[in-house]
Each structure stands twice: as structure tokens, then as C-alpha cells.
Amino acid sequence: MSEVVSVEAELHPFFEQMAKENNSMAELKSQHNFRSFNQHEAAERPRSLSLEVLLCRLRAIEAKKDDKFANILNAVGEFGTFQRRLVALTFIPSILSAFFLLADIFVFTPQKPYCNTSWILAVGPNLSEAEQMNLTLPRESNGSFLTCLMYVPVDWDLDSIIQFGLNHTDTCQDGWIYPEVKKRSLINEFDLVCGKEANMGIVQIMFLAGFLTGSLIFGFISDKLGRYPTILLSLLGLIIFGFGTAFVSSFHQYLFFRFGVSQAVIGYVISSVSLATEWLVGVHRAHAIILEHSFFAVGAMFLTGLAHSLPHWRLLYLVGGAPVFFFISYIWILPESPRWLMTKGKLYEAKQVLCYAADVNKKTIPLNLLDKLQLPRKVTSSSILDFRNDRHLRKVTLVMCSVGFAVGYNCHMLSFRIRKLGVNIYFTQVIPRLMELPARLCCVFLLEQFKRKQSLSLTLFQGTLMCFLSLILPSGTDGPQLRWPPCLATELKFLSVLIIVLGGFILVASVTVFLIYTAELLPTVLRTTGLGLVFLAWAAGYILSLMISSQGIPILPIFLCCTSSIVALTLCSKLPETQGHPLPESLEHFPPLTRYVWEASGLWPQRGLVLKPVAVRACQALSIPAPLPEGPVTLGLSPQQSRQLS
User: Fold this and answer.
1) How far apart are CA 406 and CA 560, in angstroms?
2) Residue 288 has what pLDDT?
3) Which of 1, 383, 401, 419 is the most buried (most CB within 10 A)?
4) Would you call 115 helix, strand, or coil by DSSP?
């Protein structure tokens, strides 16, 4: 045992101090997780330091060291006036982010166009609109007017046209009219009909392009410049590209503004989630993010109500986007993250913002506690290359990307299926958004009962099951259900809608848990960059679902739904739990204790130690992740113990 202790002291500076303490077993009894398997050895060697003692003490010291911000934030006030104001500042941006993000659904409502044949008014100025269409538009076999064809104009008088009629047809020459439409939309504003319908697909492409570039750009900027300037830049984007959409004069300008809006929205989501994660502790962190997402649903319902009542798409952007000017006040009231300031070596600024928060909460931070807030011995720079070089960071990012891909794919497939059912557009927005609010709030219960990892796995599994059921049921006006009895077809449609709404309810909860879990897994120095990469995977799932939906191959969506989710669930089970653990600040603390513990256990390849059976039990009790090193390592383990570790 003395050899073990000497090696431990060599591996970490805390070991040497612990090896000299005589009362280590008394302190060991205070460790709840360790007590169950160490009582027997404590009775036999009451004053000796086994590897179990060292691992437990090391975890306590490292956790205390890493959780220094939690101690200070407790002194500042866990959820005082400052924190409540910080959470409240996310409400209006969340509402408007949802508003601008989903506005396309209502400004591209289907229209029935007819060729503009006002040329006949030159010879018959008193003709009504119905008479004008009857004389100048050809009809289909069922008697309805053709939408994209007209009779070629002739130099006849009105009586000759009425007597002999017109025979030669051509495509629309003078634009289109929309006699059956009461609202002004982008369709009839820019005449996106009769061969120009593909332009609506371009809107989705531009939106996703902005989503992809914004994830990378704003994630990088937030880690380099800070959460405060990135959020302000995102809000400025919402003002310019969101509210400014009401003033576009062409469809190409509209596409450019949609590109900018999607960048601003994803930049705000990434930065605001990181800011809330780094300012709040304990259950307040999860509750704040859940509340922020709940107001996203409020924004969607706000959009639906306005779109139903306003007659013009420009008014929709003007009235709904007017609150963006409140964002100007964020310049003075939005705080920077003290965790981010510390990772950049800005100790004075971090203490300053913490003291300001304490002053708002009418608290005083003890000087001895504030003095413990020191810069690390070496402030190391980080870059996006660390996602390739750091093994554990790479593993976490790839796992969460797989989960994001599965969630993005399943969410879009559900929205595609409900549109294919031919349900009213307002119904498809109001009902899911009403369900979204309780779905978000259910996350509070989920996280308290099942913690982060199990909650994510549970919601993703159930959401995938609902998506799978919706894909195997027949749907659509031209699908298999037409050959069935009408009553059965109606019941199937109701069942499909019910399954889709329930699946959306579950996947909404999955998205919220997913963001909370991802933000806590990533270190502060690369948190927003990692979130940006995860959103890239989410967008990839969305794009793939768009491509597959247009292929018309029934088995392909089902196969990818099941495959992507199975892979995501399998990989997610390999990640550590984060609830109740301190946030990792840098790559040196990511994951906390992993390198030290496994060096001490003999699993690190450069150490020639033999892993003792007691270390196996210790690591199992402490739930310490066990990433096996690359290359062969000889361990003194039985086959059963080896299987447990791997």
C-alpha cells in the first residue's frame, strides 16, 4: 500500500498532503457514496490510506475547486433579483425569435391565381369581374377556370367576342389576379405562381443556409468575444433583418433578409443558453432555460393570432416586430458571463460583475471567498481544433451531434406528416404550440426524477416511437386511405393527427433537455462553439428529411427514423451525468477528475501500475467515466472486471 500512496503523491499535488493526514478515515465517513463499500477496509486499516480513500478525497477536493463559482454565486444570491431579471430579459427575444422564425408559414399561404385579362376592359369597361373571366379564360373539363392560361387578346369589339368567342390560348401575359383571396401575401405580392412555385423551396434553402453559417459564426464569436457582445449582435440582426423584412421590394431581398434572420435567431439561442448556464446554479439553471423555451411557444401563438387578424403580410412584420426596439436597452442591462471572463484571464472584470450582481441582490460577497477566485496557473487558448485533438471533447460532441441529428430529423418528419394530412394551417400551429407549453414545463418534473441523461433518452425514445407510428399509418388525399371506407379513413386521419401532436409534445421536451444537457457537458471555453456544431447536426437532420420527403419512397423515412434514433440512444448511454456536478471551465477540467483518477488507477498508458480490485469497486461507486487509452494496456484484472470497465 505504501507503493500505491507514493505513486499517487507523484501523480497529483494533493496526494502528498493527504498521505500525511492521520484522521483521513474520519473524513471518509462523511462521503456518502463511498461509505457502502469501504467500511470493512476502514475497520481493518483505520489509519492507512488505500486507493479508495485517495480517489474519494481527490474527487471532493477537485469538485470543491471546480465549483468555486457555485460557492460565490450562492453568496451573490442563488436566484435573487439579478438572476430573475436576467431570465426575464430572455422573454421578449424568445417571443420574437419564434415570430420571425415561423413567419414563412403564414406569408406563403396557398393562392389560386388567374391570368390578368384587363385588356378586355378597353372594349367593355362595364364588365363585371365574373363576366370578364368568363369571356377571357378557358375552362377545365369540370367547368372551373384554368389558372395559368388565358385566351389570346384580339382586336374585336365586345359584341363579336360574345358572339363568336375566343379560341387561341396562351400563358399569362400581364400577370395574375387573385379574386378569391382576401389577404395579401408574398404569393400574390411577387406572383409566385404558374411555374415560379419552386421559389418557395428556395426560402427554406436560404433559411437553412443562414442557420448553418450562423451556428458556426456566432458560436465562434461568442467563445472569442463573449456572450454579451454576441447577444447584442444577434439582437441587432433581429432588428435589421426581422423588422426590416416589412420593407423589402423584391423576392430576392426577402430571401436575403430570411438568411440574416435565421443567423440572428440561432446566434441568440446559442449565446443566451450559455449565459443562463454560466450565471445560474442548481435547479435554477434548468428552470431558466425551460422558461426561456416556453416563451418560444408563446411567440408562435402570438404569430398565429396576428396572422389570422391582419390582412397584409407587411403589417404582420411591422406590428409583430415592433417590440424589437426594446432590445436597444440591453446595451446597459445585459451582463457578461463571469465564467467566460475567468477563462480569458479577466479576473478584475469577473469580480466586478459578481459584485454588481451581489449589489443588485442586496448581498455582500465575503472577501475571503472573493479572494479565492484566482486565475488558473496557465490561461490556455482554445480553438475549434480542440474538438479533434481532445479525445473526450470529441466523443461528447459526436454523441450530442448524433442526438441533434435524430431530433431534427424526427421533428421535421412530424411537421411534414401533419401538412400532408391537409389539416388547417392555423390548427397545425395553435394546437402544437398549446401542447408545447406543458411539454416544456414537464421537463421540470423529468429532470428532477430522472436527471439529464435518462430524461433525454426517455423523451427521444418516445418521440421516435410516435414518429415511427405516424410514418407507417396511411395519410394524404391521394394515399392508401382513399380505398378504405370513409368512416375508417376519417378515424385513421384523427389517429394520425393525435399521434403527430403527441410526438411533437414529446420531442419538444426532448429538445429542451437536449440543450440543457449539452450546455452542461461542454467546457466554458468552447461551450457556444460546441453548441453551434450540435445545431449543425440538427440542421443536417432537417435537410435530410426535406430531401427524403420529396423522394416518395415510403420505407426510407421509416428506416432513417429508426436508425438515427437507435444510434443516438446507444451513444447517449455512454455519456456521464451532469446534474449536481460543477460545470467544466476548461479542457483541463474536462471531464473533471478523469485523467487523475485513471492515472492513479493504472489505466493511463504511460503509467505502469496494476489496477487493484479495490480500485474497480471505488470507481464503480464513484461513477467515474472510464475512457480506455489508445493502444494495448496490461492490467491486473480478472476477465469479469475487464468487462465491467470496458
Assistant:
1) 9
2) 92
3) 401
4) strand
Distance CA 600, CA 55 (A): 8
Mutual orientation of helices 425-472 and 555-572 as an angle, nearest 10°? 80
Q: What does the pLDDT read at residue 196? A: 72
In terms of Cα–Cα distance, which of 219, 321, 225, 331 is closest to 270? 219
> How far apart, in Å, are the Cα atoms of 21 and each of 2, 3, 14, 528, 596?
14, 17, 11, 42, 20
What pLDDT is recorded for position 269? 93
Q: What is the pLDDT of residue 26?
A: 37
CA distance 198 to 295: 33
Q: What is the DSSP letter of 240?
A: I
Residue pair 626/619 in contact (Cβ under 8 Å)? The answer is yes
Secondary structure of the chain: what % helix, strand, coil (to 5)?
A: 70, 0, 30
From 516, 505, 396, select the one nearest 456 (Cα to Cα): 516
521: closest CA among 465, 472, 574?
574
Got the DSSP string for 337-396?
PHHHHHHTT-HHHHHHHHHHHHHHTT----HHHHHT----SS-----TTHHHH-HHHHHH
CB 499 within 8 A of CB 355: no
Return d(Cα 54, Cα 609) in angstroms, integer.
15
Exposed / middle / buried, residue 99 (Cβ in 10 Å: 0-12, 13-18, 19+): buried
Q: Which of 328, 210, 353, 339 is nearest to 269 (CA)?
A: 210
Contact (CB, 8 A) for 251 and 199: yes
Rounded to an integer, what distance in angstroms lies between the CA atom of residue 521 and that of residue 344? 20
Q: DSSP states of 448-506 as a string?
A: HHHHHHHHHHHHHHHHHHHHHHHHHS--STTSGGGGS-HHHHHHHHHHHHHHHHHHHHH
Q: Are 402 and 464 in contact (CB under 8 A)?
A: no
The three grid cell numbers given for residue 111, joined into one nine-digit string: 393562392
- C-alpha cell of residue 422: 391537409
Cell of 435: 401542447
C-alpha cell of residue 157: 369589339
The amino acid at residue 494 is F
- Mean pLDDT for back-to-back runs of 10 residues, the chain (646 residues): 38 40 39 42 41 49 57 84 92 91 82 80 80 82 80 81 79 79 80 71 84 92 92 94 91 91 94 92 89 89 86 90 90 91 88 90 85 70 82 90 92 78 66 81 88 90 88 58 45 76 88 92 90 92 83 80 90 86 76 43 40 45 44 42 44
Q: Which residues contact 262 (CB under 8 A, 6 or more apart)?
A: 101, 206, 207, 208, 209, 210, 211, 214
Query: Is the full-model pTM beyond 0.85?
Result: no
Give the 3-state secondary structure of residue 598. Answer: helix
Our measurement of the distance from residue 408's CA atom to the centroid of its chain's CA atoms, rounded to an integer in Å, reads 9
Closest to 55 (Cα-Cα) out of 524, 603, 580, 582: 603
Neighbours of 282 (CB within 10 A): 14
Note whether 400 and 521 are within 8 A (CB): yes
